[in-house]
Amino acid sequence: MKCLGNNGNYKFWKYHPEPINGFEKFLMIFVIVLMTFIFIPLAGLGFGIYHITAHYSMYGLIPLMLMIGLCFSAFVTGIGFIVALKNGFCSRCVNFSCGLNTVTKEVVDAYLRKNDVMRKAWEKTGYVLDK
Ligand code: SF4
Predict the structure, then answer these.
(1) How many domains does one find in the chain?
(2) Do residues 35 and 77 both lie within one domain?
(3) Which of 86, 114, 124, 128 has its CA 20 to 30 A from that of 44?
(4) Taking the CA atoms of the chain, what radius of gyration do you get in angstroms?
């Protein structure tokens, strides 16, 4: 199993058939997705805005406006990437317990019925297949 949005990069962890728990899901969404694509770029660019504002007499208006525009672009790009990932890949990905996965329960259940290893691991954690 591999992430459709991360094709070809090195995998650091072994495959586990059971679903990830709530804490792991929170870490995955908050730390990996939001930190990487939203918070870290905005923090860096926000510091740039702060630095230019603090030394406004040295830089002037144009660098400040460019830095604000860059910050806004980074935000829009980060959101756009997440939306594109969710719409283009996560809605047809078999990594059902990933925090971004949007596959319907009906499809998940149909998949699990054909995958005994994964179904047993999921049922062990309390997951119930629809009839
Ligand atoms: S659900 Fe999306 S982010 Fe998660 S593994 Fe699948 S493609 Fe990657």
Answers:
(1) 2
(2) yes
(3) 86
(4) 20
Q: With a 6 A CB cut-off, is 100 part of the ligand 1 pocket?
A: yes
Atom of ligand 1 lying closest to residue 94 CA: 6
Look at residue 125 and tell me if it is in a domain. Answer: yes
10-29 b/e (C-beta count within 10 Å ≥ 16 → b): eeeeeeebebbeeeebeebe
Candidate from 7, 85, 94, 96 with most ligand 1 atoms within 8 A of CB, to mutate: 85
Domain of 105, in residue numbers? 93-131
Find out whether the beta carbon of 3 lies less than 6 Å from any atom of ligand 1.
Answer: yes
- 1 pLDDT above the threshold of 60: no
31 pLDDT exceeds 60?
yes
